[in-house]
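User: quick one - fold this with zinc ion bound?
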Amino acid sequence: MKILGIETSCDETAAAVVTGDGEILSNVVRSQLEEHAPYGGIVPEIAARAHVSTLDHIVADAMTKAATAYEELDAVAVTGGPGLIGGVIVGVMTAKAIAAAQNLPFLAINHLEGHALTPRLTDDIEFPYLLLLVSGGHTQLLGVEGVGKYCRLGTTIDDAIGEAFDKTAKMLGLGYPGGPAVEKVANNGNPGKFSLPRPLKGREGCDFSFSGLKTAVRTTVEKLPAGPLKNADIADICAEFQAAVADVIRDRVTNAIMQFKSRFPQGNTMVVAGGVAANTAIRSALSEIADTENMRFIAPPHNLCTDNAAMIAWAGIERFKLGLIDQLGFAPRPRWPLDPDAPSAPFAGVKA
Ligand code: KG4
Ligand code: ZN
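Assistant: Sure. Structure tokens for the protein plus zinc ion:
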């Protein structure tokens, strides 16, 4: 079995071909970083236009690299949401056109399900497992029970974690995207030189909050002597910021493991996904907790943690195997929670 996957929900234009047994035949990702960098963040209209002008070439490239003809495909899978709607429409229309022209089954994939099922593409794991999804648009703790079956244990009540990294970087003049820049600079700094809060630490439940941390970074910067920021201060603030985030994650994830284990006593795997999963301090905090709690810990390789189309093709394979085909009348969804029973949180589903 071979499925073509397409991803255009944020600022990556991506296409991939993946086989039924999880072999990635091609995985092409074109980042729009350069287009958005001058604005210090993603501009939805620019993103949609960049998807329109590049997607055809990216799909052709993925098919060539996979040495696959359209007639050899078994289905086409595309991110149907949640995400920036202009981009999602570009991907969905392209996938529908390919499906109609080649008479192939069409699969509309929830982008978050793409992230959530990635560990089953990279590792041999069974349901259920606990997932921490940490990206520019999402911060969620989910119990993954099966394809299409998720229970949300926690989410952010304000900013997403990647957003907090990006805004901190912007305040410190470190450019966009902020996560990798903050991490790099933090390596030269000392946590504790400045003092930042650990929002919700010690509280019941598994929700997150990052807006107070972001504000605390701003007030810390404002209290410094006027003039250009010193590199040493920037490094110390980044180190403290990263330590605060890691502390909060330790606390929230420990609570989530308790809840997960009481719902799914047979589950013993914890997985992290999303762009922020690239952060070494966060990965080691998670791996420590997993050790303490006797859980297996899986972090997919970085290129499969960040947005890509291999994860969409793979989610397509999982759904196709279960006969979960969609109609060509599918309407792109800007919001599409994985767990429809969870109360909606502000900003959830805007961007994955
Ligand atoms: O999953 P992703 O590639 O895109 C979406 O948000 O959908 O995640 C991007 C986010 C950005 O906020 C970026 O700053 C953050 O992941 N990020 C990191 C690191 N690398 C990327 N955050 C912290 N440390 C990193 N090393
Ligand atoms: Zn994503």
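One thing worth noting: The mean pLDDT is 94.
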